[in-house]
Write a structure and sequence with these properties.
Alpha-D-Glucose-1,6-Bisphosphate, Chain A, domain 3, globular, isomerase, phosphoprotein, about 20% strand, 4 domains, alpha/beta, metal-binding, 7-stranded mixed sheet, 6-stranded antiparallel sheet
């Protein structure tokens, strides 16, 4: 068993099986979560990773020993688990390692109503309980033992996704979805079953060994098969899902990837058409085009930190109807503030239907700047390097520069900006740069990466 600080992350529990994550850990987490949540029942889902079966059984044993009933949902996507948590008003546990390789597994937790559980909202307390159990302590016995049950919520979840669009506005678009042998292979056909789209799925078989390519669509190499198939078939759009199918990336009709920022802007506009004057959230590494477009269409843009626990909290505070992240997570107030790649996908398809223009044309009005994408640099002391970079771009020596410490360091120099954030789990700095055009962006990326090498 690994040290708990290696597997308890900012938003979930995740590690390699069985050396870091095993049945003993899962059982301890089940008991700790049941005590922390204090609810009569917990809904539990898992993705297609082979290790999930044993881990779910162990978690359920721990939770029922702690007095909670456990409702097993079977194979689900993460956004389907969040839906179940909201619809059934029950805490939830999802066994998945998302886009990580096959040897990984983990647990995403939420409270009733799909409220997030992260390092600052309960995960630290759960970790302390787990550490106590693994150290030999025996928790106080529950008044009763919980019971196991089963429930299938896929049809209800699919209907919920479809409720975000008006079927009468949809055209028979051709859609290719690459589900990468992940949970999208089960969920996406259920969602599209009653929609007038022609759907083709690449790698639909549920296989947690990921025999075709990694289930990580933010990496361009993993989009190659989808891009090729979209062009070959003359499809209107391609959809790329990660392993647990809560994230979705778009590929346009020319086979060109669409960034998470652009998708955020497109969905924001669609949501403002349905909810005029609403508040829309975007995280701080989204393009400046996102708040511009929100404001131009009568909405109120609100900037947030990166990460679902922060975004969901700000959604609750502001009443925002939608929030988007550059990483492909899209949050909807009418979906218990939870993220759903499938909802974002059908909203975009409705917008394409109404616009009656190809995505390759439609996207142009949402893309106003050039961005670098996320660039990772290994450094020995990320906080020290961030401080050194801040010193280099002090407004005293760079007139007009503004520094923001909301999440890492954001430096805005007017015609371009960059953000440096430390990784939660590795000695890495994550760099995002945006500028007026591609040559300027490339020059500024070189400027910052040279500086990081100098300071490392």
């Amino acid at each position: 068993m690994a040290r708990l600080d290696e597997i308890f992350k900012a938003y979930d529990i995740r590690g390699t099986v069985p050396d870091q994550v095993d049945a003993e850990l899962a059982r301890a987490v089940g008991g700790a979560f049941a005590r922390f949540a204090g609810a009569p029942s917990i809904v539990v889902g898992r993705d297609m990773r082979p290790s999930g079966v044993e881990l779910v059984q162990a978690f359920a044993a721990g939770a029922t020993e702690a007095g909670a009933d456990v409702v097993l949902l079977g194979l689900t996507s993460t956004d389907e688990l969040y839906y179940a948590s909201g619809a059934l008003d029950s805490p939830g546990a999802m066994f998945t390692a998302s886009h990580n390789p096959a040897r990984y597994n983990g647990i995403k937790l939420c409270l009733a109503g799909a409220r997030p559980v992260g390092a600052e909202s309960g995960l630290a307390e759960i970790r302390a309980d787990v550490e106590s159990q693994l150290g030999g302590a025996r928790p106080q016995a529950a008044d009763r033992s919980g019971v196991l049950g089963e429930r299938d919520v896929l049809a209800d979840y699919a209907a919920k996704v479809r409720s975000f669009v008006d079927r009468d506005r949809l055209r028979p678009l051709k859609v290719v979805a690459d589900t990468a042998n992940g949970m999208g292979g089960l969920v996406v056909p259920a969602v599209f079953a009653e929609l007038p789209f022609e759907l083709e799925i690449l790698f639909p078989e549920l296989d947690g060994t990921f025999p075709n390519h990694p289930a990580d669509p933010i990496q361009p190499a993993n989009l190659a098969a989808l891009r090729q198939r979209v062009v070959e078939t003359g499809a209107d759009v391609g959809l790329a899902f990660d392993g647990d199918a809560d994230r979705c990336f778009l590929v346009d009709d020319r086979g060109e990837p669409v960034s998470g920022s652009t998708t955020t802007a497109i969905v924001a506009r669609a949501m403002l058409d349905k909810h005029p004057g609403s508040t829309i959230l975007y995280n701080l590494i989204c393009s400046k085009a996102v708040p511009e477009i929100i404001a131009e269409h009568g909405g109120t843009p609100v900037r947030t930190r990166v990460g679902h626990s922060y975004i969901k909290a700000v959604m609750a505070e502001t009443g925002a109807v939608f929030g988007g992240e550059h990483s492909g997570h899209y949050y909807f107030a009418d979906n218990y503030r939870a993220d759903s790649g499938c909802i974002a996908a059908v909203v975009v398809l409705e917008m394409l239907s109404v616009a009656d223009r190809p995505l390759s044309e439609l996207r142009a009005e949402f893309e106003r700047y050039a961005d670098s994408g996320e660039i990772n640099t290994e450094v020995a002391d990320p906080p020290a390097v961030i401080e050194a970079v801040a010193t280099r771009y002090d407004p005293a020596t760079h007139p007009g520069a503004s520094l923001d410490r909301t999440d890492g360091l954001t430096v805005d120099l007017g015609t371009w900006w960059f953000n440096l954030r430390p990784s939660n789990t590795e000695p890495l700095l994550r760099l995002n740069v945006e500028a007026a055009d591609a040559p300027a962006c490339e020059a500024h990326v070189e400027e910052i990466t040279n500086l990081l090498r100098e300071l490392s």
